[in-house]
């Protein structure tokens, strides 16, 4: 079973005017688990997800590893090994990003097929099944410019799930969807994750929906340090604190 484990990870983003500091003292997720990351806008949720997806490298960490059931892979150093990183990403990860960019010159079906091709797992029937569950099966031959924002978001969800990833990362996957369609999207994500026993990490502002689907909550808390410097810390949120959020 897949498992990711992070210990004492730090990341700083800085430019001339500002500095943003993120700390992840401990975070782990295993196959079959669902974790939601909540926190105010700009608190670092996407930064955490980009680190998990190995799009952004941490500055330092005690441990950042993935156990795929056969070997223990050190994710803290894999970024230097470009082909190993590309292989791992393609084989294991499905990332629904906040912007969900699609290739504009390809149809929805072709966008989904690209992900399957890169992962060496072509499966048109599965792509069509996902599109049906997401309510976009009539749009498979449309190009992104011909879709609404919510339809594009669902196309991006289908693409990220189409190669049967064992780690599903979603950054506000229902941000552009009405409540009924949002529920349909989460149901599809969790159904697909169930097919492979995948781990699911989801950033969301929809506490109610995440609670309903039994996600464990983590929050990014902004702590003020001496002077004006702040640090944003990811930590588990216990059930009583969750009531306040709801
Ligand atoms: N190069 C940079 N230098 C300094 N700060 C940066 C830099 N790039 C991003 N940031 C800051 O990092 C913080 C975290 O950004 P991130 O996108 O992770 O937030 P978020 O929690 O996902 O927000 P949202 O809910 O709006 O999507 C933001 O406050 C952003 O302004
Ligand atoms: Mg974000």
UniProtKB/TrEMBL annotation:
What superkingdom does the record give?
Bacteria
> What Pfam families does the record tag this protein with?
ABC_tran (PF00005)
Q: Cite the ABC transporter domain residue spans from the record.
A: 4-246
Q: Which SUPFAM superfamilies match?
A: P-loop containing nucleoside triphosphate hydrolases (SSF52540)
The record's listing under InterPro entries reads: AAA+_ATPase (IPR003593), ABC_transporter-like_ATP-bd (IPR003439), ABC_transporter-like_CS (IPR017871), ABC_transpr_LolD-like (IPR015854), P-loop_NTPase (IPR027417)
Keyword field: ATP-binding, Nucleotide-binding, Translocase
The molecular function GO annotations come to: ATP binding
Alphabetical list of PANTHER family matching this protein: IMPORT ATP-BINDING PROTEIN (PTHR24220), LIPOPROTEIN-RELEASING SYSTEM ATP-BINDING PROTEIN LOLD (PTHR24220:SF689)
Q: Which family does it belong to?
A: Belongs to the ABC transporter superfamily.
**Name the record gives this protein:** ATP-binding cassette domain-containing protein
Annotated source species: Rhizobium aouanii
């Amino acid at each position: 079973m897949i498992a990711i484990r992070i210990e004492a990870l730090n990341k700083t983003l800085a430019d001339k005017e500002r500095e943003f500091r993120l700390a992840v003292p401990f975070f782990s997720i295993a196959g079959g688990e669902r974790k939601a990351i909540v926190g105010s806008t700009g608190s670092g949720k996407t930064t955490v997800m980009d680190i998990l997806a190995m799009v952004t490298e941490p500055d330092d960490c005690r441990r950042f590893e993935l156990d795929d059931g056969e070997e223990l892979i050190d994710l803290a150093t894999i970024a230097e090994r470009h082909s190993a990183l590309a292989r791992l990403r393609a084989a294991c990860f499905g990332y629904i990003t906040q912007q969900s960019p699609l290739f504009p010159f390809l149809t929805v079906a072709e966008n989904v097929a690209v992900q399957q091709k890169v992962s060496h797992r072509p499966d048109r029937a599965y792509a069509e099944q996902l599109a049906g569950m997401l309510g976009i099966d009539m749009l498979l031959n449309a190009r992104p410019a011909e879709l609404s924002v919510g339809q594009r978001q669902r196309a991006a969800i289908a693409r990220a799930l189409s190669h049967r990833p064992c780690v599903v990362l979603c950054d506000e996957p229902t941000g552009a969807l009405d409540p009924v369609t949002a529920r349909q999207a989460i149901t599809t994500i969790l159904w697909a994750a169930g097919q492979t026993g995948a781990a699911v990490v989801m950033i969301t502002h929809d506490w109610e929906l995440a609670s309903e689907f039994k996600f464990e909550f983590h929050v990014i808390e902004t702590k003020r340090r001496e002077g004006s410097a702040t640090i944003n810390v990811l930590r588990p949120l216990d059930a009583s604190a969750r009531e306040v959020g709801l």
